[in-house]
Amino acid sequence: MKTFENWALHFKTNRPYIHWKENYVLTEKERRAITKAIQVFQKGESSEARSLLAKADNFSKQRNDKSYAEALHHFVKEENRHSEELGKWMDMHQIPRLKSHWEDSIFRILRKPGGLEVSVSVLLTAEIMASSFYHALLYGTRSGVLKQICTNILIDEEQHILFQSQGLAQFYSERSAWKRECIHVLRALLLLGATQLVWFSHRSVFKSGGYSYSRFMQESFQIFAKSMHQIEWMCERKKTRLSVLLTENNRTA
Ligand SMILES: [Fe+2]
Ligand SMILES: [Fe+2]
Questions:
Q1: What is the domain extent for residue 36?
Q2: Residue 96 belongs to what H/E stretch?
Q3: Full-prediction pTM beyond 0.85?
Q4: 201 CB-contact burial (10 Å; exposed 0-12 / middle 13-18 / buried 19+)
Q5: How far is the CA of 45 from the centre of ligand 2 (A)?
Q6: For 35-50, how does the pLDDT look when each residue is reduced to its tens digit (9 = 90+)?
Q7: DSSP sequence for 16-53
Q8: How remote is the CA of residue 134 from the centroid of ligand 1, in Å?
Q9: Helix axes 102-111, 177-208, angle to 10 degrees
């Protein structure tokens, strides 16, 4: 398991290579299937996440440990790099960049109220669906450059899910078992709502990438379950380390 200092370093130094040269011309069918979705995701990845980062800075001050906030700052820059890469590809293929979109606004509005834990939960929900989206886009296009971008982003997104799960584990480890169960149910409901929105808005790109509705739902909830297992494992690990430290302290006292 990485420390948050390691995560910051990972995000700071992660610069996957892309060979930008391409003569491929999108077919009309392909353009119709992917344009709207890629515009919305490109916009979503461009967020500066000001309210999330302000909450993270506050959290770090309270705990006198800036490592998590620093890692989140670098994580946001990595998401912005994804946006830049998608934007550059869209420019090459004359797909206009969006200034705003209601779907992106919904996720931003959901992230604002509540504390850092709520914001990270909403973010993790978006990351889970992003994984399926970039898989669909990877198989739904014949553009070599877009395939490279999607492959790189998919590798990054897998790490993002692990990073966000580790971030949430900090909060979960301070909750009682029943509170954790309640949060689990609320997060599952949030994912259920978000998957409906994403599927019905972008089903053309999912279908062109070989996804059916049931495959999309199954995959989203599998990633969710894996993330929950990671969170629980990290909480247990933290508790075990704490009890070992306490036992050692008692012995030396
Ligand atoms: Fe991303
Ligand atoms: Fe991400």
A1: 4-16+23-252
A2: none
A3: yes
A4: middle
A5: 8
A6: 999 999 999 999 999 9
A7: ------------HHHHHHHHHHHHHHHHHHT---HHHH
A8: 9
A9: 170
